[in-house]
Design a protein that fits this description.
252 residues; mainly alpha; 0% strand
Length: 252
């Protein structure tokens, strides 16, 4: 049997890691699809919850194509599946990257994973209870003295799903900042120095990701993003101080 050289071992390790990543992605996707299948049979309950924020503003949603109604139910089922399977995906990501870190950092990654899950659910709750009611009230009442809102179920569910997912994603900002600070990529001084550029970037990003381009929805998402950035700076400062104490203890 021919000897295996270091370059070949490195190549085999890369292939093994890619295969592991592929299996974890496929497993997460399988859970997502299985949950979507289950949720579709409970989609009436989900749809009632989804239309609740708009019921007082538009009592009856309409559909204008034969497939629009069923597609809307599929969207809500996929959204519920995405929210629930986020827990599985977060665990799979942790399980994949944790062996590359030492024991202490591994504990940190567990905490970051738990934080990301909690903040994701907090972001979806913020979108449902705050962003949607405020945004819908402004958008639908604007010009209502001359216009009659006739909103299709397809357009509404697309808007609903986008707002919910965006809320979950932007609440991950402190976790991303804290994680990068924990592994030494970001520092509190760097974050404070670039605050004004980050604020501009947040406004641009909020304008891009919001389904509508009105000022109300822009502020609904940009203000929490900036507050979450400030929370991230505080987390980075705490981590920076703790890491310095740890390094000094190791050196002594």
């Amino acid at each position: 049997m021919p000897p295996t050289y270091p370059k070949e071992l490195k190549k085999l390790n890369v292939i093994a890691h890619l295969e592991e990543l592929r299996m974890r992605i496929l497993f997460s996707l399988a859970i997502f699809l299985a949950l979507a299948f289950v949720f579709f049979f409970k989609s009436d309950v989900l749809m009632r919850a989804a239309v609740s924020p708009i019921e007082d503003l538009v009592p009856n949603l309409i559909f204008i194509s034969p497939t629009e109604s069923i597609v809307a139910y599929f969207k809500i089922s996929f959204l519920a599946s995405f929210i629930c399977s986020f827990l599985v995906a977060a665990y799979q990501l942790w399980a994949f990257i944790s062996p590359a870190f030492e024991k202490q950092k591994r504990v940190h990654i567990v905490l970051w994973t738990i934080s990301s899950i909690l903040l994701f659910f907090a972001g979806t709750a913020f979108s449902y209870w705050v962003a949607l009611p405020v945004g819908l009230k402004f958008l639908i009442n604007f010009g209502r003295d001359m216009l009659v809102p006739q909103i299709t179920i397809g357009e509404y569910t697309s808007f609903f799903c986008a707002i919910i997912v965006i809320g979950g994603i932007i609440f991950e900002i402190p976790v991303i900042i804290g994680l990068f600070a924990d592994i030494g990529i970001l520092s509190p001084a760097m974050l404070r120095k670039n605050r004004k550029y980050v604020l501009l970037g947040i406004l641009i990003f909020a304008a891009i990701i919001t389904p509508t381009q009105d000022v109300v929805n822009l502020l609904i998402f940009s203000l929490p993003m900036f507050l979450l950035y400030e929370v991230g700076i505080m987390l980075a400062a705490l981590l920076y101080e703790n890491n310095n104490h740890y390094d000094q203890g190791v050196e002594s």
